[in-house]
Amino acid sequence: MHVHSSPSIFPRRQSDWQLIEDVRRAKMAGVVLKAHEGQTYDRATLLREKHPDLHIYGGLVLNAFSGGLSPVVVDVAIQMGAKIIWMPTISAEQHQKYYTHRSTGKLFKSEKPLPHPFDGIRVVNDEGRLWPEVYEILHLIAEKDIVLATGHLAPDEVTVLVREAKEVGVQKILIQHADLGIAKIPLDMQKELVRQGCILEKCYLACGPDFHDISLRFMADSIRALGADSCVLVTDYGQVHNPPPIQALGAFIQQLMDNGISEREVEKMVSLNPRELLNLS
């Protein structure tokens, strides 16, 4: 549900084609491609033509260089088959604040800096209300019953976005890498988001050497606290210095099982919940 491959402005471990060969060798049903640079729905369409037996999907990340908070761009993306609309990631104000006093390490290293709004994008105004264009985007997502993902928004933005999304009829809300330091969400808030019907990404990147935000033991504890019905397992891998994403997913699953997560819970988080999000049930 969350993997990066090339083409990309950032160095990636694998091309789309190499990633899909790993998906096939692992006998997985499919994969969702994500790109901070913008859209992956068109790449996914071409990949499905080559591999019609696999579920290969993409979407659109609403960063500044892909149109930002533009209902027009989102409308076209949905018509072109986008399965997920991600709120801003590296253009988000929260992302830029996080890295103001931190090095990006081996992440987000492009040859030339990507263009960003000076202060970053927020989805709420100074009064704490969503911008009108965000409401338009939510209505488009609700109409086609696709996934709204929270990107790298700050927790206060996530609170407002989820509340208003539910009001306009969005059924599928995916909280991105809730344990990752870029936009970390406290466990109490994660529990509240579960009560509101959201699905939370439990992300291997948060446990790895790039961040070290949470141990595998505490990750397993958080899954038990939230319930596997409300979680999906993702790697967020694809960076050139990390293991290939499918290999990493296997390692993530094994380490969670070593920490008491059952095979049934893994199946729910890796297979069944993603199928429901993608309307494949």
UniProtKB/TrEMBL annotation:
InterPro entries: DUF6282, Metal_Hydrolase. Gene3D superfamilies: Metal-dependent hydrolases. Pfam families: DUF6282 (PF19799). This is Uncharacterized protein. The lineage of its organism: Bacteria, Bacillati, Bacillota, Bacilli, Bacillales.
